[in-house]
Amino acid sequence: MPHYDIVYKCPLCERLLRLGKAVDLKYEQLPELLGKIIANQRFAGHPILYEAPMYVSCQCSDGNAGLACIAGLLKV
């Protein structure tokens, strides 16, 4: 089974950021998992239901600070 990382893309520096460890998933599971990430945002204040944030901060190499948005699941 392939490994996937949750990745974020910074709009300022275009860098891809990875969060956490790679997970084993079947390709067919990817749309369902992305849907669950979006649905979980409604419960972001509850640690049991919160898994992957929609945004993470990026310390860009040029001295800027970006707000990277979830870009998807990257096969590694």
Model description:
By secondary structure, the chain is mainly beta. The protein is built from one helix and four strands. The N and C termini lie close together (11 Å). It is globular, with a radius of gyration of 13 Å. It has one domain (3-75). The chain has a four-stranded antiparallel beta sheet, with no helix packed on it.
Number of domains: 1
Order of helices and strands: EEHEE
Task: Classify the helix fraction into a percent range.
Answer: 10-25%
Low-confidence stretches: none
Q: Based on CA inertia axes, which overall geometry fits?
A: globular
Largest sheet: 4 strands, antiparallel
Which properties best describe this structure?
1 helix, 4 strands, single chain, mainly beta
Outline:
Helix content is 14%, strand content 42%. The protein contains 1 helix and 4 strands.
What is the secondary structure topology, with strand pairs?
Blueprint lengths: L2 E7 L6 E9 L5 H11 L14 E5 L5 E11 L1
Antiparallel strand pairs: 1-2, 1-4, 3-4
